[in-house]
Amino acid sequence: MNGGIFVTGTDTGVGKTVIAAGLAAYLKSQAVSVAVMKPVQSGAKKVNGRLESEDLALLLKATSILEPLELINPYCLELPAAPDLAARAAGIQIDPEEIIKAYRALAARYQTVIVEGAGGLMVPLADNYTFVDLIKQLKLPLVIVARAALGTINHTALTVSCAQSAGITVAGIILNHTHSATDGIIEKTNPEIIQQLTGVPVWGVIPYSPGISVEQTQLGNIVDLIKKHLKLTWFNKQRH
Ligand SMILES: Nc1ncnc2c1ncn2[C@@H]1O[C@H](COP(=O)(O)OP(=O)(O)OP(=O)(O)O)[C@@H](O)[C@H]1O
Ligand SMILES: [Mg+2]
Question: By alpha-carbon position, which residue is closest to atom 11 of ligand 1?
Fold first, then answer.
């Protein structure tokens, strides 16, 4: 894969970390050298007096890379809020150039870098600067993680439209179940409706799996689920 991929979501809590870590672990299992990056973590917990990112912990478990935090998680903030606000609450401002420099340092040494956003595309990182601006500057293709259930058509179509109108390539959409539920007519028809409406390939639907947990740093069977449920044609093609 040349460069990397940016994993965004239609919202917070839709499964970006689970999918990003799963894709990274899948690539690693295919002998691809892969780095991970969580440019900004807000809502970080203090462990032994130091702020730690749960998301980064799972991403690292997927890849086992050893890299300085300045590169893989340049900003780790305590307030559970949008990055710009969380940074200001900590008395700092996010400098997008720091994130871009860190990304380039990783991209120079790995075949691919999987970058996880925070919240969704229009979340502010700095004054007049959102994740849309960052993704454009990083020149990365986008994978959108969306809920599998009711409400996802609108959020997914809006996210695709926002990305495309900014000139960002949307490589695919992954629907993800964060809770156990029986599929009804909505879950069964959502993939096709979303693909038709947006013109973007829906790679598949990841089921809920109780062994997966970001909070417990457990990858569970995410790699098997990715292999079984996602069409990875585009993703695999990028590596050649
Ligand atoms: N397929 C799944 N099976 C079981 N649990 C899941 C699955 N996908 C996500 N979860 C759980 O749902 C919650 C939200 O997932 P996750 O943290 O990956 O979302 P996120 O979009 O990265 O959130 P944030 O915006 O906070 O970064 C977590 O508790 C995670 O363990
Ligand atoms: Mg996350």
Answer: 178
What pTM, to 2 d.p., does this model score? 0.97
Instruction: Determine the CATH number of domain 3-237.
Output: 3.40.50.300
Sheet holding 202-206, edge to edge: 34-37, 112-116, 3-9, 142-147, 170-176, 202-206
Categorize the per-residue pLDDT at 182 as very low, low, confident or very high, splitting at 50, 70 and 90: confident
pLDDT band at 240 (very low <50, low <70, confident <90, very high): low
| Sole residue written with tokens 């894969």 | 1
Mean predicted lDDT score pLDDT of the chain: 96
118 alpha carbon – ligand 2 mean position (Å): 7
Domain boundaries, the chain: 3-237
**Distance from the alpha carbon of residue 17 to the mean position of ligand 2, in angstroms:** 4
